[in-house]
Queue: 2 jobs
Job 1
Amino acid sequence: MIEANAIPAFVNRGSFIELNGRERAQALFDRGSWRELVGPFDGVESPWLPMQGVAPQFDDGCIVIKGKISGKPAVAISLEGAFQGGSIGEVSGAKMVAALDLATIDSRDGSPTAAILLLETGGVRLQEANLGLAAIAEVIASILELRQYAPVIIVIAGTVGCFGGMALAAGVSSYIVMTREARLGLNGPEVIEQESGKDEFDASDRALIWSIHGGEQRVGMGLADDLVEDSVDGIGSAVQHFVTAGKPAQHRSEQVGLYRRRIATLDASSQIDPLALREQWKSLNSKGRTR
Amino acid sequence: MTNAGRQEPELGEQMEHIEFEYPNAQRRMTNRAHVGVVGSGDLEVLFEPSERAGAYVSITTSVNGFRNAWKAVFDRFFSKFDGSARVQVNDAGATPGSVLLRLEQAVEVLGQ
Amino acid sequence: MEESQLERENAMSERIGLRGKAWFQALTGQNEARKGDPASVLTADAMIGDERALFLCVIPNPGGRFPCARDGQVGLEEGYTLAHRVREALNADKDKPKSQKRAIIAIIDVKSQAYGRREETAGLFLAAAASSDAYASARMAGHPVISFVVGHAFSGGFLTHGYQANRILALDDAGVTIHAMHKEAAARITRRSVEDLERLGQQIPPMSYNVHDYAKLGLLHQLLHVESPLEPNQSDVDKAKRAIIAAIVDARKGPPDLGVRRESRAAQKSRKAGIAARALMEHQWKKV
């Protein structure tokens, strides 16, 4: 809520989830090293929302901050989950793509620039439908370009989580950091219940939801990289760690052979027990050895 | 803003765009401020130094028919605030109390 | 006016996924999945013009292992199979000069992504990402990737299978819809009636379910009219092949990224705000 160039000390000890999208992005950077780009004062809003009687936001719900993390150039792209569910529209999508592409250009020119995507999003903004969907395809493409040169780090802290087309963006990235509260999946519980019925997924069953989509399960499955406590320091450290680590040896979305094997050995005759699947996949790791 | 709960606009209903001027707000400003998020029942406000003397308020709201309520809030605010500001608001149905709160937060930021 | 309404009614009563199979067979002469692949994913190397290309298509598979992926949805098996076959072509051609990297042609008629608990548990988002990655990696390596939308292209299904293409072609037909969410579900979520949504789509091109309005967004390379979209005749097939070949040639001439989607004349109009945001970002980036 308060725009300032320095985060007050009490915030640094506190919850990351309680910060808004802008504060979350700011919190990741070395003190005094950052600037917001195409921010609210530039007023680049959605042209489509007012046409439908929906109030726009001056930054279209996407905050881009460029600066240094652990002394290294980095850009953070943060979705404001409280605005239209963090959904991707024409402008918010374009900001994300542009920031990724500019980081790629700098990286190719000899200054590797990591990107941190803070994703609280349900995916496409339905009020902009096809422009939102097209933007997500372009985000995926731009992540794939950048990750060749610098790490693309996804942070999902909650409470919205990362769903819809943006879950593919998470899937092609270098690293995924999650809290326990956070969730990651292509389809959320409501949409599955709507399309396939309550027996398939009871959207009111919170334990079920977190047992499948929650941060602890995703990290336990090897589908995300780091489970972090909900604290500014904790998430900041995790991000610094991955910025410093650089590119991973192999990206998860390139491990097609491994995942084909895993899916082939899946017993689909009934619903799958999430904890059992964690164990099954641990014993079927990429080197084919039991750990 | 709304005095009751959130309202859904009818299809085809335009956003409401409201403007006010406060010519007595003459103090030159040097800072700017942005507060708030356009969540349901909430609003965001931008304060910037105005190019012309006086203060100029421009509100975009998804809830129509509350011009008088907005005027009452801003009349009250500018009875105490004398900065020559360009004020822009995006509103998704905040109550008058919430609006005043955001304006006060903005003043705090301007003072930093 | 009457004729197009009849067309629309016929299109709505059609089962999704049948056009995909019909066009795959018409273009490649083949109609079965490769050994070891699920029956829902048809892939084949076939000639188009003077060159060999890899064709891929996702179709319904009533006998599939996953109950939520039997009706033309893109699920776990589909995502990883597409990724596997595309990467196979990518690896096979990796030392070839760019002009000889085979074209990769996605034929698209998909209902959606698979909406199921098994899918979410086993990480469908990653299967979709893996396929998207494979298509994009092929494009980035210099393969011309062409998408040919012959029916439905929705949401996660299209992101997984087709939306990473250099060039997108679509049939000009009422049975062709490219969109983020089916009407009924979209209406429910945005708390409007389906009729309201359709009316909004007439004023707001990105929300429209009509492929002519999609074409206004500047993302489509070509809208192709054929006589018999459900069961293409020889003249339809020849026309489609010519269009695909032209798209391949055009793709080879251009850069391997998706920038062309912002540069078309239609895009400069429909995506003005996004283009302005990008230009401003470029300007401000240099100053930090």
Note: The domain at 9-254 of chain A is CATH 3.90.226.10 (2-enoyl-CoA Hydratase; Chain A, domain 1).
Job 2
Amino acid sequence: MITPTSRLRGSLLHSARILAIVIIVVFELFPIFWMVTTAFKQRIDMFVLPPQWIFKPTLANFRYILSTMPVGRWVLNSSVISLGTMALSLLLGVPAGYAFSRVHFRGKGVLLAFILLTRAIPPVVIVLPFRVIMQRLGLFGTRTAVILIDTVYDAAFTAWLMSGMFASIPVDIEDAALIDGCSPVQVFWKIALPLSKPGLVTASLFTFILSWNDFLFALTLTSPSTATLPIGMLSTYGILKQGWTYMMALGCLAIVPPVFISLLLQRYYVSGLTFGGIK
Amino acid sequence: MKIWTMTSSIRKYFNTGKRSLYLFVIPITLYLIFFFLYPVVYEIYISFFDFSLGSPKTFVGLQNYVFMAHDEQFLHSLVTTVIFVVSAVSAELVLGLGMALLLNHESRIMGIIRTAILIPTVFTPLVAGLVWKALYHPDLGVISYYLRLLGIPIGRGLTVERSTALFSVILVDIWEWSPLVAIIILAGLKNLPKEPYEAAAIDGASSSQMFRYVTLPLLRPVIVVALLIRSLDALKVFDIIWAITGGGPGTATTVANLRIFQVGVQQLRVGYASALSNVLLVISVLAGVFFIRALYSREYGGVQ
């Protein structure tokens, strides 16, 4: 029976719920909101306290960073490294994932455990010896060095993710094609790959984003000419002192690709985020 | 001629059944051996040497490890790491669970909110760190301004005071990763069976009893996976701390990763840094083994 008090309690609970949701949304989105608004503020406006939320936006910060800093080179380096990592990771990881889901072989368990372990090893542990190896190979300071170490993590991720994706494709179709005389490689190429497009999308966007967002590897392995966006952004920190408006403009440029891609392909992003747990 | 028959017999071998698929795992195996296993083995090897970049290395046996046992700074960084991981991950689980329960409604606005709160997880961590650094700025930061306005004492600033610096970087980790926990739990909530709830309703369970005795136990596997994913990743934290405090003030926010980086990359003491890394390696391999076992034993992910 609905009594006036229980109705009151119900509406109070409802209000508390909405309040809690509002707090969460503000907590999660405020830093992003602040970054974007600061990027469009005049330098004078940004030091005014209390913070001005209504102001006359300007593109001056973007104009300034684009004309005084090698932003183009940083974007190019970030793009080359991310796309290179993505391509190499797919090349190594997708076929491996297929084999994991279709055949049994000796050492499969060890290899799978090994692949999952890459997820656990802190980057700082592997980057030190990796740097020494890159110096010996003459690759230190190149974009290739960053691609090679990013791929360790991303190819392993791809193999794991794709083995789950391929496992969810029924083998009956493939067996029929095998009986019709297709080789297993042809079956992989012509049947399994087209059927696993969602997995391929997830793997592509995730390897790209992981590599794009990397900081530590680029910090230890690049030289000024191969610096990525995060490294470039950090290098301006000292020069600009309190030049937050410029730095936030750079930040906006840096986060456009990952945020845009993840919003556009949200379902795939979530799938990658949970290690293929949510399909 | 002979070579031709040999290659043809190899080809015949691989064309039988699905054997040719073995070839598919060879590239990644070689790659991981050379770029993952080899660096790790090399690091274990080099930890027995006194080796600074640019100078010859000398074998010193266990000296690095003996030194490490008395290295206050490193031991302190391990403690800081434990505090960071435990408090960040437990807060993320609680907050993520709360978020999931609040947002577990099918409506347009809820869908938009669920999407929007995922943005921090895709934010370049270094950029996020620099944004928070500005927000925390003692004099000009928005957070400092509002906290002072509310009359909350923050001393010279949250990131500057030793007592609050670690908390302030933990908060950023919570900001960044609670939504991930929420999304994992939301997926779990969506897949819950209906029958236990019907049975509990017949037995006259209240909604809080249902949550305590039906929902939570059913969500347990999902929560365990979220816990493990987050623990492994929190153990790797570097970028946000580097950006916000650089490990300071003093060593208040220097986690093990940061300490190893300082020793290995900034002071170039590669041999000693390798010994420190091995401690972290053992910890993370143990955590990783737990992770793998959980993935295999729960109905989660693509394990066959």
Note: Residues 100 and 111 of chain A are 10 Å apart (CA to CA).
